[in-house]
Structure formats: structure tokens, C-alpha cells
């Protein structure tokens, strides 16, 4: 089924991943609107489930606990017919990458560090960003980038207009689904 915004009955979840500030939520909302499907921000979803903010989760229970919540959430969202903006660290675990590839289409929004940094540098709602130096974040960015690529099926270039990134995602999903269909037809 090609994505054209008019039907999504057989649609798999689309997981958007990338570094903090790459545009997952902004692009995700527009993509969901374009495809006429649901949008879920995974961090917001976790906050609602936990009844507290990400910062509070980090402070009280630590990063490992939060990462486990992300793993559980990816698995629980398997039947979502829509776009899911993952947290910046959600697809760093191989387990999460495998799960996202099995149940949906993980897409890495590859946005330059300088753009991400300018978007997140003073954001108190991003505990890792707020409590880190620019150099620490830059190291984290390049370490994570390799994992985003590994745990995604598609990579699109970020840092463009939201409209352009959305159109590129739709084009790449259609290409991916055509290849998948051709592969299944040969079997």
C-alpha cells in the first residue's frame, strides 16, 4: 500500500528517531496530518502513563528505568496506525531497534548537530541536554548517530523545512514499501 494520505488501514507504525531537537515531534505532527493518521509523542505518552515528567523520572528512578519504559512503550504501540515520535534515546538499544523494525518503519531524521544544539541548549525539559556541556552533547550526538542509522530502515535529511522533510519521508516510505512488496512477490 502506498502512502498517499487517503488510506492507512494496513499502515504500520512509523517510528521517527534522531537526536534531541532534530525535529521528530514537529515533523511527526505534520506527517500524521498529511497521512491522516494518529500522532503519538512517546515522551508525552510515557509522562501520561507515569503521571510525572521525564525530568522527574530521571531524578527519581534514573535513566535506566526511563529507557526500560521506552522499551515497553515501543512494544505496546505495535498496533498503532500512525506516526510515533520516539525520544532521543529510544532507538539506541538494539532490542528497541529490532522491535521497531519488526512492527513498523523506523526512520532516522539526520539533522546537523549545530541545528539540534541551538534548539535544545536551554531546554530544562531535556535533562540530558540541560545538564551537559556543548562538547559532551556533541560527543553524544556522534555516538548516537551510528546507532540511529543501525536501528532504522530509512534515513532522511533534517534541517530543511518541515514540509520538505515530510515529503521526503513519504517518498522514502513508498520506495521502501515497493521494495518490500517486490521481495514478497518473488517468494
Explained architecture:
By secondary structure, this protein is α/β, with parallel strands linked by helices. The chain has one domain: Rossmann fold (3-Layer(aba) Sandwich). It has eight helices and five strands, in the order βαβααβαβαααβα. A five-stranded parallel β-sheet has the order 2-3-1-4-5, sandwiched between helices. α1 packs across α8, α2 crosses α3 and α3 packs across α4. The radius of gyration is 16 Å and the shape is globular. The two termini are 18 Å apart.
Outline the fold blueprint.
Elements: E1 14-17, H1 24-35, E2 38-41, H2 42-50, H3 54-76, E3 82-85, H4 94-103, E4 105-110, H5 113-120, H6 127-130, H7 134-150, E5 154-157, H8 162-186
Helix pairs in contact: 1-8, 2-3, 3-4
Brief digest:
This protein has 187 residues and is an alpha/beta fold. Helices cover 58% and strands 12% of the residues.
CATH topology (fold) name: Rossmann fold
How many domains, as an integer? 1
CATH 2nd-level architecture = 3-Layer(aba) Sandwich
Straight-line distance between termini? 18 Å
Number of strands: 5
Decide which structural class fits the backbone: alpha/beta
Question: What is the approximate shape?
Answer: globular
H-E string: EHEHHEHEHHHEH
Most strands sheet:
5 strands, parallel
What's the CATH C level? Answer: Alpha Beta
Q: What would CATH call the homologous superfamily?
A: P-loop containing nucleotide triphosphate hydrolases
The largest beta-sheet arranges its strands as: 2-3-1-4-5
Helix content: 55-70%
The mean pLDDT is: 89
Helix tally equals 8
Question: Which residues sit in consecutive blocks of at least 5 with pLDDT less than 50?
Answer: none
Amino acid at each position: 500500500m502506498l502512502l498517499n494520505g487517503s488510506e492507512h488501514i494496513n499502515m504500520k507504525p512509523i517510528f521517527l528517531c534522531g537526536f534531541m531537537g532534530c525535529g521528530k515531534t514537529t515533523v511527526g505532527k505534520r506527517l500524521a496530518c498529511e497521512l491522516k493518521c494518529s500522532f503519538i509523542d512517546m515522551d508525552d505518552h510515557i509522562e501520561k502513563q507515569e503521571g510525572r515528567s521525564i525530568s522527574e523520572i530521571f531524578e527519581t528512578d534514573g535513566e535506566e528505568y526511563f529507557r526500560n519504559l521506552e522499551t515497553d512503550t515501543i512494544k505496546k504501540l505495535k498496533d498503532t496506525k500512525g506516526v510515533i515520535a520516539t525520544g532521543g534515546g529510544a532507538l539506541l538499544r538494539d532490542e528497541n531497534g529490532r522491535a521497531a523494525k519488526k512492527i513498523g518503519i523506523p526512520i532516522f531524521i539526520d539533522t546537523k548537530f549545530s541545528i539540534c544544539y541551538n534548539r535544545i541548549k536551554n531546554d530544562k525539559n531535556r535533562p540530558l541536554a540541560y545538564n551537559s556541556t556543548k562538547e559532551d552533547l556533541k560527543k553524544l550526538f556522534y555516538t548516537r548517530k551510528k546507532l540511529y542509522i543501525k536501528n532504522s530502515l530509512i534515513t532522511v535529511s533534517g534541517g530543511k523545512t518541515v514540509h520538505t522533510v515530510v515529503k521526503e519521508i513519504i517518498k522514502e516510505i513508498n520506495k521502501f514499501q515497493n521494495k518490500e512488496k517486490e521481495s514478497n512477490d518473488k517468494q
